[in-house]
Design brief:
The complex is a heterodimer of chains A (310) and B (442). By secondary structure, chain A is mainly alpha-helical. Chain A has 14 helices and two strands, in the order H-H-E-E-H-H-H-H-H-H-H-H-H-H-H-H. In chain A, 73% of the residues lie in helices and 3% in strands. In chain A, strands 1-2 form a two-stranded antiparallel sheet. Chain A is globular, with a radius of gyration of 26 Å. Chain B has 20 helices and 14 strands. Chain B is an alpha/beta fold and 442 residues long. Chain B has three domains: 33 residues, no CATH class; 157 residues, Periplasmic binding protein-like II (D-Maltodextrin-Binding Protein, domain 2); 223 residues, Periplasmic binding protein-like II (D-Maltodextrin-Binding Protein, domain 2, 3-Layer(aba) Sandwich). The longest helix of chain B has 18 residues. The relative contact order of chain B is 0.16. Classes of the chains: A mainly alpha (310), B alpha/beta (442). Chains A and B meet through helix 2, strand 1, helix 13 and helix 14 of A and helix 1, helix 6, helix 13 and helix 19 of B.
Chain lengths: 310, 442
C-alpha cells in the first residue's frame, strides 16, 4: 500500500526548493504589462524620432530616417492640434464638475433613506454604462438630428428651435453623451464608499440635531474624499482621451473636424494622413500632458485636504 | 489609445523582438496574426494549385468569384467583403505581411501605395489588355510607364433632378451653372422649403467632379517635382459658385449619407443632386418612395464648354507580399475586363464600366423604373466622353482630402469663405508633401 505523504511534508518540500514560486505567480502580469503597457510607450518614443522619407516624385520608394525632434516641432507648429487641447480643457471644465455633482448627488440620495425603489433606480442609472460608448453615441446621434429626432421635434412643437449639432452646441452634445454613459459608474463607486462608512457617526450627528443635508455635505462627503478624487481623476483623464463619442458623431455633423480632440488628431494623422511617426510624437505629447494634469490634480487635492485638516 | 497612433507594422516587429523566448506570448501573437493570413500561411498545395485572397466591396462579387473558381481549378480565389474601416486596415495588413493578395482600391489612393511599395508592378501580366480599357482609366493606374492595377469602374458625373418639383414651379432644367443659380433663386422664391441642392461639406467627390469639369487638378507633375493645385483657378471658379449659393441661402448643408440627409431628400426639400454614375443606385435604395419623380441630365456646364467631370474610379491591385502575382493579375483582368463579367458588374455591382466591352454592353442602357423609365446611363456615357483628361492623382490624397473637408466644415459653419478654405488646405497639403521629403514646385 502506498503511504500517503502528510500535507505538512508537501508544504515543506515545495517551500524548501521554491523561492521561485512568487515570481512564477507575477510573471504573467509582468509579461503582459511589459508587452501591452511598456513596449507601446517605448515604441511610440522611438517611432516619434523617425520619419518616412522619399525624394523627387517618390516613386523610387521610401526609407525611414532618424529626424530627432522634428516630429515634435511639427506637432507644436500645428495650430489645430494645440486648439484641440484647449477644446478638451473647456469641455473638461464643464463636463467634469457636472458629472461629479450628478454622481455625488445620486450616490448621497441612494445612501439616504429618501429614495424608494432604490434598487430599480440604481440599476437604471448604472445601465447606460453597460452600453458601449460607440453605441451610446449612435443612439444619441439620432436624438440630435432634427428630421429623425423626437427630442428636437418636440422642442420645435413648443416653439423652441434648437440645433444640437451647431458649431457652438456640439461640444455640449458630446459632453451629454459622455455624462449619460459614465455618471452611473462614478455613482456606484461613490455609493459603495458611502456604504462602507460607519453608521454610528451619523447616528451621533443626528442626535446632535444635524439634518440629513448637513450630514451629507459635512460628514459623508469629506469621509469619501479618496473615492471622489479617484472618480474625478478618471473623469479628467477620460476627458483628455476623448475619442469615441466625437468620432462617431463626426459622421452626422461637419462641426466636428478630423482633429477635434488630441486623440482624434493623432488618429487622423496616422490613419488618414498616413504618418505614424508624427502620430507617435503627438501621442507622446498627449501622454505627457495627461501625466502632468493628473499630478497637478493629485497634488492640489492633497494640499487642500491637508489644509482642511489643520 | 496610444497604440492606435503607431503603425502596426512596427508594433508587430517590436512585439516579436520583446517576446522572443516567451512561449506563452509567442502563442498570443500567432493568434492575432492568423486573421487574414489563413491562405498565406497555407501556401500552395502540392498539386500546383494557387490560392488568391481578394478583398473588395462591389455588390455581387461573390457570384463572380464562384464562377471563376468553377472554371479555374488551378487558381482558387477566396473573397472577403470589405465593410466599415477595412480599407484602412489594408496598409497595416500589407506591412505586417498578412495582407490579401488582391484588393479593390480608390484610384485616388493608388500613388501613395506605389510610393510606399505596397503594390506590385503588374505591367508584364496586364499590358496586353490595355486596348480594352478607356485611356483615362488606364492612365489612372500607370505611373512612370509601369502599370500597378486593373481599372474597375469610373465615376462620370450627372445631375439627378426632381422633375415633379421643377415642373410644379415652372422652372426649366438648368443646363449651365448660370441657369442653375437662376433656378436656385426661382425655387426658393416659389417655395422657401425647397432648395436647389444640398452642399455636403463631407463629400469630396462632388467637389472633385466640378474641379475636373473646370479642367483643374489637385496634383500635377512638373518634370521631377509635384505641383499642388487645390486652390487653382478651376477650384476658385467652383468655390465662387458655391459661395454664392451658400451666401444667398439657396442650398441645404447636411452631411451626405446621414439619416438627416435622406430624410430631407425623401421630404422633397432637395431638387437636384449632381454626382457620379454609381449614385442613382444609392438614391433608388434610400429614397424608394420618390420613385418615378427623378430624371437624370448632364451636370450643368461652365460657360463656353461641354465638359463634364469625374469623382474618381477604382482599381484592383496586386499587393506587396502576394506570392502569385501572375495568377492574381490574371484573375483581376478576367474580373474587370472579360465579356463574361461585364453585365453582372453593371447591373448587380452598379459600376460604370471603364472597359470598352462594358461600354458596349446592352445592360448599360437598360431603362430604369425609378427614373420614370429613362435609360439613365446614356447620360453618363456621354458624360464620360466629355470628361477632360486634366486630373492627376497625387501622393498624399488622405491628407489633402482631410484638410479640404475640415476647412469646408468651417465654410458651411460660416466662419470662413471657400477661397480661404482652399488656401489653407493648399498650404497644409504642400507642407505635408515637403515633410515626406518629396519635391514640390510651388
Amino acid at each position: 500500500m502506498a503511504v500517503q505523504t502528510p500535507p505538512s511534508a508537501v508544504r515543506r518540500r515545495v517551500l524548501g526548493g521554491g523561492r521561485w514560486i512568487p515570481y512564477a505567480f507575477v510573471t504573467p502580469f509582468v509579461l503582459v504589462f511589459l508587452t501591452f503597457m511598456l513596449a507601446p510607450i517605448v515604441i511610440a518614443l522611438v517611432n516619434g524620432l523617425y520619419s518616412s522619407q522619399s525624394s523627387g516624385l517618390g516613386f523610387g520608394g521610401a526609407e525611414t530616417v532618424f529626424v530627432g525632434l522634428r516630429n515634435y516641432t511639427r506637432a507644436f507648429a500645428d495650430a489645430d492640434f494645440l486648439v484641440s487641447f484647449g477644446r478638451v480643457a473647456l469641455y473638461g471644465l464643464v463636463q467634469v464638475p457636472v458629472m461629479m455633482v450628478i454622481a455625488a448627488v445620486m450616490a448621497l440620495l441612494f445612501d439616504s433613506a429618501l429614495v424608494r425603489a432604490r434598487r430599480f433606480f440604481q440599476f437604471a442609472v448604472f445601465l447606460p454604462y453597460a452600453v458601449p460608448g460607440v453605441i451610446a453615441a449612435l443612439l444619441w446621434g439620432f436624438f440630435y438630428q432634427p428630421s429623425v429626432s423626437p427630442l428636437v421635434q418636440g422642442l420645435r412643437a413648443i416653439d423652441i428651435d434648437t440645433d444640437l449639432l451647431a458649431p457652438g452646441t456640439v461640444l455640449w452634445s458630446v459632453a451629454n453623451v459622455s455624462i449619460w454613459s459614465n455618471a452611473g459608474i462614478n455613482m456606484i463607486i461613490l455609493f459603495s464608499a458611502l456604504q462602507s462608512l460607519p453608521r454610528d457617526t451619523f447616528e451621533a450627528a443626528r442626535l446632535d440635531g444635524a439634518g440629513e443635508l448637513r450630514i451629507a455635505l459635512n460628514l459623508k462627503l469629506p469621509m469619501i474624499a479618496p473615492a471622489v478624487l479617484l472618480t474625478t481623476l478618471s473623469t479628467v483623464i477620460g476627458t483628455l482621451q476623448l475619442f469615441n463619442e466625437p468620432q462617431v458623431l463626426q459622421s452626422i455633423t461637419p462641426n466636428i473636424s478630423s482633429d477635434w480632440t488630441p486623440n482624434m488628431a493623432i488618429y487622423a494623422v496616422s490613419t488618414l494622413g498616413r504618418d505614424p511617426h508624427l502620430g507617435s510624437a503627438m501621442a507622446v505629447i498627449l501622454g505627457l500632458v495627461t501625466l502632468v494634469v493628473s499630478l497637478v490634480l493629485v497634488r492640489f487635492t492633497n494640499s487642500s485636504s491637508r489644509g482642511g485638516a489643520r | 489609445m496610444d497604440a492606435k497612433a503607431l503603425s502596426r507594422h512596427r508594433v508587430r516587429r517590436w512585439t516579436a523582438l520583446l517576446t522572443t523566448g516567451f512561449v506563452a506570448l509567442a502563442g498570443l501573437t500567432a493568434c492575432s496574426s492568423a486573421d487574414g493570413g489563413e491562405t498565406a500561411a497555407g501556401g500552395a498545395p502540392a498539386d500546383g494549385q494557387v490560392e488568391i485572397d481578394f478583398w473588395g466591396w462591389v455588390p455581387g462579387l461573390e457570384d463572380l468569384v464562384e464562377t471563376w473558381n468553377a472554371e479555374n481549378p488551378d487558381i482558387q480565389v477566396s473573397f472577403h467583403r470589405m465593410t466599415g474601416d477595412d480599407g484602412q486596415k489594408v496598409e497595416a495588413a500589407v506591412d505586417a505581411g498578412t495582407g490579401p493578395d488582391l484588393v479593390q482600391l480608390s484610384t485616388h489612393d493608388l500613388p501613395d501605395y506605389v510610393i510606399n511599395g505596397r503594390v506590385q508592378d503588374i505591367t508584364e501580366y496586364v499590358a496586353e489588355h490595355e486596348s480594352n480599357y478607356t485611356a483615362q482609366s488606364w492612365a489612372s493606374v500607370s505611373f512612370d510607364g509601369r502599370v500597378y492595377g486593373v481599372p474597375q469602374g469610373i465615376g462620370p458625373s450627372g445631375m439627378m433632378y426632381r422633375t415633379d418639383i421643377l415642373e410644379e414651379h415652372g422652372i426649366p432644367v438648368p443646363t449651365t451653372w448660370d441657369e442653375y443659380l437662376e433656378a436656385a433663386r426661382a425655387l426658393q422664391a416659389a417655395d422657401p422649403d425647397v432648395y436647389i441642392a444640398n452642399l455636403s461639406p463631407g463629400e469630396i467627390g462632388q467637389w472633385v467632379q466640378e474641379v475636373q469639369q473646370a479642367e483643374g487638378s489637385w496634383f500635377g507633375i512638373d518634370s521631377d517635382a509635384w505641383t499642388v493645385g487645390i486652390n487653382d483657378e478651376a477650384s476658385k471658379l467652383v468655390a465662387e459658385r458655391w459661395q454664392t449659393l451658400l451666401d444667398e441661402d439657396l442650398v441645404t448643408t447636411e452631411l451626405m449619407w446621414t439619416p438627416e440627409y435622406w430624410a430631407r431628400v425623401n421630404a422633397g426639400d432637395i431638387a437636384t443632386i449632381s454626382y457620379a454614375a454609381w449614385f442613382p443606385t444609392a438614391l433608388a435604395e434610400n429614397a424608394a418612395d420618390t420613385s418615378g419623380d427623378w430624371r437624370v441630365a448632364a451636370m450643368p456646364t461652365n460657360a463656353g464648354s461641354d465638359n463634364q467631370g469625374d469623382s474618381g474610379g477604382a482599381a484592383v491591385v496586386v499587393l506587396d507580399g502576394a506570392e502569385s502575382a501572375a495568377a492574381a493579375a490574371e484573375f483581376a483582368s478576367w474580373l474587370n475586363g472579360s465579356d463574361e463579367t461585364q453585365e453582372a458588374l453593371i447591373t448587380e455591382g452598379g459600376l460604370f464600366p471603364s472597359t470598352v466591352n462594358g461600354l458596349d454592353s446592352p445592360a448599360l442602357v437598360e431603362e430604369q423604373e425609378f427614373f420614370g423609365g429613362q435609360a439613365i446611363n446614356e447620360v453618363f456615357i456621354e458624360s464620360a466622353e466629355n470628361t477632360p483628361a486634366t486630373w492627376t492623382e497625387g501622393p498624399n490624397w488622405g491628407t489633402a482630402q482631410t484638410a479640404v473637408l475640415d476647412e469646408f466644415a468651417e465654410v458651411v459653419g460660416g466662419s470662413q469663405t471657400f477661397a480661404e478654405a482652399l488656401d489653407n488646405a493648399q498650404a497644409a497639403t504642400v507642407a505635408d508633401l515637403e515633410a515626406r521629403g518629396l519635391t514640390v514646385n510651388e
